[in-house]
């Protein structure tokens, strides 16, 4: 089974953003040694417990510290930015590290104040499919006269191009990926399972219709928690669920809560109910149990690759998680 990683770059309780970023570099280097396919960085704004507000900046650090691992964004929220500028950023990374750069894009509006700040002074909105089409144009150095920016070249001009991926959970995103002949990345985090299967089937069908000689490709992503001992898995799960519970509130945590913090926390009945609802958003178990569940996910959803999110507390715990999954998957 092909395994990859999506990292939020968590800032643990008692740590700094500098330490979080340095740890992510260490984790990517380890992932490369362990044989993971890709290492992607998420984009999150106004979330104080993660250091991934500018994934492309983190990506360049990871590219410089690894040699073969595919490094990507999971993903750049394209509606906030100029497709031209995004193309130039990713072409520079691709020029420096050919055939290793992945551009995963999404279109989440984020918080209202974040959206306003990122789109300040814009006089018009360009729809997401048009921006994807623009990126394809820039990466291919396309000079077709019917493109709205046919006279514009994204520099530097290079012989390779970043690999593009579309992130989403809807038929609209699946259709966009299929029309462009791009891989589709879909999160499995407690949604209706039949709906997920329907979206993936729709992507496969549309892809075959538009590109009958090419192969569609689906990556499915999910939070995972594992450790050698059940007690440690439970402790990590408690800290994870506390983090997940609080990030949607105005008084969100300033850091990812420690295991000790989580063990001392008392919960209201409403919070316990919410935690129970969130159980389906994460896969928890022994290394073999997690790998078995991920392989079942591949079969159930006709996926080609699994992208795990090792969003657990502690640098050592994250390293152990990657080692255990790699060993169980070998």
Could you say which overall geometry the principal axes of the C-alpha atoms support?
globular
Give the name of the CATH architecture.
Answer: Alpha-Beta Barrel
Strand order of the largest sheet: 1-2-3-4-5-6-7-9
The percent range for strand residues is 5-15%
**Main beta sheet strand tally, sense and closure:** 8 strands, parallel, barrel
How many angstroms does the end-to-end distance come to? Answer: 9 Å
Q: Overall mean pLDDT score?
A: 93
State the share of residues found in helices, binned by percent.
Answer: 40-55%
**Order of helix and strand elements from N to C terminus:** EHEHEHEHHEHEHEHHHEHEH
Looking at CATH, the homologous superfamily is: Luciferase-like domain
Number of strands: 9
CATH class: Alpha Beta
Query: Spans with pLDDT under 50 lasting ≥5 residues?
Result: none
Query: How is the CATH topology named?
Result: TIM Barrel
Put simply, the count of helices is 12
Tell me the Rg in angstroms: 20 Å
Total number of domains: 1
Q: Structural class, judged by helices and strands?
A: alpha/beta
Write the layout of secondary structure elements.
Layout: E1 3-7, H1 17-34, E2 38-41, H2 55-65, E3 70-77, H3 83-96, E4 101-106, H4 112-118, H5 128-139, E5 163-167, H6 171-180, E6 184-187, H7 193-210, E7 218-225, H8 230-246, H9 259-264, H10 269-277, E8 282-284, H11 287-301, E9 305-309, H12 315-329
Parallel strand pairs: 1-2, 1-9, 2-3, 3-4, 4-5, 5-6, 6-7, 7-8, 7-9
Helix pairs in contact: 1-2, 1-12, 3-5, 6-7, 11-12
